[in-house]
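Hi, here's the filled form for the chain we discussed.

Project: internal
Contact: R.S.
Residues: 89
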Amino acid sequence: MREEIQENIKRLVNFMNFARSFFIRKNPFKALAVSLITSLKEMLTIRQKLKMAKYRVNYHKHQLYKMESLIAESNEHTFLKGKNLNETR
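And the returned structure, exactly as it came back:
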């Protein structure tokens, strides 16, 4: 009985040493804190990122519109020229 208790105590001490080494090596509390801080930063800057994305989309839409209008101006067989009608039909 006494040997069994001593063996269990040795196993418990061994497990505690492994756990302590793991916490020293990996430090999950520090990783959790870093993760929380980065997610908080992301939440606070999401509006700015959304504005930048909207700006990029609008800019590319405008560039596409400019390209389409330039193509339409030089093409004589299109209705995108505005008031000029396609006379060939």
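Let me know if anything looks off before we file it.
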